[in-house]
Amino acid sequence: MKKITLGAGTGYWGTPIDFPTELVQRADLDYLGIELLAELTMSILQRMKMRNPKMGYIPDLLEFMKIVLPFCVKKGTKIITNGGGTNPMQAAKEVSKIIKALGLPPMKIGVIEGDDMMDKIDDVLRRDINLANMDTGETDIQVIRDRLVSAHAYIGADLVAKALKEGADIVIGGRLSDNALYVGPIMYEFGLNYDKPEDIDKIGAAITIGHIIECGEWVTGGSSNFWENVKEPWNIGMPIAEFYENGEAIITKTPESGGLLTVETIKEHLVYETHDPRNYIMPDGIADLTTLKLEEVGKNRIKVSNMTGKKRPEKLKMQIGYHDGYIAELMMLIPWPKAISKAKRYEEIVRERFKKFNIEPKELRFDMIGVNALHGEVSPIPVDESTINEIGFRVTAKLSSKKEAYLVRRFVIGGALCTGPVGTAFNAPNKEREIIALWPALIPREEVKTTLTIMEVK
Amino acid sequence: MGKKVQLIDLAWARSGDKGDRSDLGIIAKNEENYQIIKREITPEKLKAFFKGNVLGDIQVYPMDNLCAIKVVMDNALGGGATKTLRWDVTGKAMATAILRMEIDV
Q1: To which H or E segment does residue A205 belong?
Q2: Which of the listed CATH numbers 3.40.50, 3.40.630, 1.10.10, 3.30.70 matches domain A322-439?
Q3: CA–CA separation, A46 vs A150, rounded Å?
Q4: Three-class secondary structure of residue A242 per DSSP
Q5: What is the Cα–Cα distance from A31 to A81, expressed in whole angstroms?
Q6: CB-CB: which of B13, B81, B83 is closest to A324?
Q7: B76-104 as b/e, with b when 16 or more CB fall inside 10 Å?
Q8: What does the pLDDT read at residue B1?
Q9: In CA terms, which of A210, A291, A306, A413 is 20 to 30 Å from A454?
């Protein structure tokens, strides 16, 4: 039975270089995915591109390419990445320079563009296409129109599959959905078609497998409940999927690596950020995660079978980023004795300073690190503070303008520092940071006109 | 009935986000625990438990095939990772909070 082997070299921007390196050195992969985007990333990249039109891709992509390309060429591994960010064409040009500099044989790079919707928003709105905020239900996007930073549609695997069909060795896109990096090769290799009813479950399986491996070490014992049993997490392996013609798969990991891969660690990732598990909606289809079966078939080998899905949605998700004010932040460390009482005193001081400067923050938050910063109101507050050695005290405020944020840093929270209880340790307040808020909306698929360019590197 | 245990004795949990939505997965340690969790963890109880932290609707989805439930909570992360004042911007610790929950067994 035909099978293909796909590996996840990264799971996020910031993945350490040794994870993909050891993966391509030790495993014989047909495809390597390099996934580098999170929800906010496109807005950050868009701003980099506005400052310099030759930027806008993920800089780490080039570092990864320099190291993995020689192995991939030797082993015939094709690379699929969304690290092109807001500038896939420039990323491809930079990668072509690396190919030449390394003296590698001629290669083809498929470049996928067209997910950037920024210039199309006004036209879409003019035609009364509703871009209601999926999170808040707000319908009037005009209220943020003059504050927009970026707008990108999450696109599927169709052009990834097409690029592979046209002989691409590397495919570079922008806001390709994370799992399109894996769905693309599976659709190409097994000739799957969105419109063939008999292929829908297999596309659902591809999406499921894509989800299982797309966050890298999150499925091989990273961020795990089983951390005490994870072997050598400092050498953690990256996930590998063997996908079979019959729509089943085996999940494994970098040979000779650390980490942990069991039925339970795969469950940890199947329940992670999948929302309604019967309808895990991706641009390429809707996976149903409630039918699949997991079975350990060998050491570090877990079989996934009986995966199902539904036809791809008519609409794509679009992530719109917009300016939404500033955050001012202050952190201090408060020692025994009476650390909690002292924190309460600081809270009072900060509140009074806001009043004195007549600034009304949009939001104001106080956290006692060591007490309630993570579990919020679920945290039991210790009644006896005599055993508390120290706590962190964090003040954060959301302000409408940069000027207000400055005043808050300098005079409101800054001015609270030396007026409080004895023994508190602090640095200068952090510089205020700008908020890029996100407005997720649905957009009809036909509005997103993606293109494929094949770049030949000789 | 009448006996209570903490969820941490029955299940593992992990959480993440999409926008302002907090997404928790609770994996029962065995089939028997799964039946208890499926019966006892309801949107109403979660709403009371996360009072003050979660402002929006709460949905619970069973996954019989994994002996797990999904809990999806709206308006739960202070506006979402990019604008929240929370230290834990993506709600990674929400799963450990729920493990404190007292469950009737």
Answers
A1: helix A200-214
A2: 3.30.70
A3: 6
A4: strand
A5: 11
A6: B83
A7: bbbbbbbbbbbbbbbbebbbbbbbebebe
A8: 57
A9: A210
Whether B87 and A374 lie within 8 Å, measured CB to CB: yes
Q: Does A228 touch chain B (CB under 8 A)?
A: no
A357 near A412, Cβ under 8 Å? yes
> What's the pLDDT tens digit per position in A157-172?
999 999 999 999 999 9
Which domains, from first to last, does chain B contain?
7-100 (3.30.70)
A377: tokens are 């109101």
Helices (H), A408-449: none
The three-state secondary structure class of B77 is coil
Q: How many CB atoms lie within 10 A of CB A267?
A: 24
Per-window interface: A 117-156 vs B, CB < 8 A? 134-136
Instruction: Tell me what pLDDT residue A428 has.
Output: 82
B96 contact A CB<8A: yes
CB-defined contacts A:B, below 8 A: 132
Judge whether A40 is closer than 8 Å to chain B, CB to CB: yes
Q: What is the mean pLDDT of residues A262-288?
A: 98
Q: Report pLDDT digits (tens) over B66-78.
A: 999 999 999 999 9
A94 touches chain B (CB under 8 A): no
Residue A430's pLDDT is 85
Min Cα separation B103/chain A (Å):
15
Interface subset of B 6-65, CB within 8 angstroms of A: 12-21, 23-27, 49-53, 59, 61-65
Two structure tokens written together for A100: 């030449």
B78 chain-A contacts, CB cut-off 8 A? 363, 365
- State the smallest CA–CA distance between residue B2 and chain A in angstroms: 23
Q: What are phi and psi of A335, to 5 degrees?
A: -95, 165
Residue B47 Cα to chain centre, angstroms = 10
Delimit the domains of chain A by residue range.
Answer: 3-115+154-313, 322-439
Cα–Cα distance for residue pair A78/A75, rounded to 1 Å: 9
Which residues, given as ranges, of chain B have pLDDT below 50? Answer: none
